[in-house]
Amino acid sequence: MDKEAYLREIMDTVRQGPYHDTWESLSSCPVPQWYRQAKLGFFIHWGVYSVPAFFTEWYPRLMYYKTNPVYWHHCRKYGKDFDYHQFIPMFKAEQFDPEHWLELLQACGADFVMPVAEHHDGFKMYRSEMNEWNAVNMGPRRDVLGEIRAACEKRDIKFSAASHRAEHHWFMNGGATLGRKNATQEEAYREFYGPCANLHKHNGLLTLNRFGGGETPKEWLEDWLMSSCEVVDRYQPANFYFDFWTMEEAFRPYMRIFLAYYYNRARQWGREVFCFYKGDAMLYPCGVYARERGQLEGISPDPWQCETSTAYNSWSYCTTNRFKTAEVILRNMIDVWSKNGCMTLNIGPKADGSICGEETALLQTISAWMQKHKEAVWGTGPYRVFGEGKKQKAANLNERYQYGKKDFRFTYRLGTLYAFALVPKGRKRFRIHQISKRGSCNAIVKAVTLLEDGRQVEFREGTKFLELRLDRPVTHALPICFKITLE
Question: How far apart are CA 342 and CA 276, in angstroms?
């Protein structure tokens, strides 16, 4: 690729408009209607890190830092002289079947699917002219991103893309202070390991958790810009997601250029697109706010997104994963929907491309639940209040939410309020205080049914609460939903 020519092409597209690289111009790009109605997307973290499959997808960083479990594990299992790039030939993806993946995700009701095009490790999961270290040239020797896109289009599911390349500037910098020769510092592998920018003299837990490598140079920022634009041009994603390092000040002018290029190119395709952002990587409202493993305290006036994973500890498949239960995932989803958000749930396939038994079982349970409750999900919006119950910590990265029997969440469509009881097991009597003469909803309740099986629910309206009584206790732990018809 002639990178200078490509950079000129990018800048020419921005100059031509109609969107330009100013926040004022970018803020005029609307969030597409399809996303305003979306409720469920799927992240896919899959890459070379799926080969060691230990602890977390940050394995390639941790393996070069002493005094952490990944370093010890790597030395014991592979040896001190085994570098990260040596995992690539082992990443064969023999069972990679995007049709099977999409079949599972579509059954859950996926509105969009968002594979990671490139993670922090710098290995591109698509055909690239920017860098030879990609899945078409080595490893799977397949255009992973392109095949997932084709499977999405066949099912009329929106295809999205995520890039974590910004962090690759420093991600592998543990090799600089490891104290022995390793491939991260060899120029022959520089295109793969990146700059490994480093400010630290010591190698250990303290420096491991200090991200960055000093000032980000123009060359890297331009590389990030062109890498991102290449994904846009080649795969035309319906939305684009960036991870946390793009919040750094140095990225701001380049982020504006990228957004203007992306939005202008979409105009040329005749499509509506948007971009997710974390923190303040963009000025509000130039994209859709994304909150990783977290909630909002109340209803947002604008669409937003929560991303979480099937596992507490990792976004990729690991033999050490601590998987969540289906009820934990569903409670989180319902909370997000009640606050005008879209949930994006991550799966992490194994290195061979198969989806592990734990994740398959979770997806099947979620799919069965969604089939029974889709009326309360798609085509609904938030109510005047999101629900009631114990106040949760919004910034709760460990996701240990303390839901109890008093926790309810609401969705709404004209004339119908859907009240989800998040912890129903063993109960047959429920009291909702917001639906009462003194609550936020004091409309007349005409009828109540239990959505999962359609049975009529006995109810009594009071001054302080609406009491609902089932004919028998709930025997499962999954959330239940009362369809409350109002007049």
Answer: 12
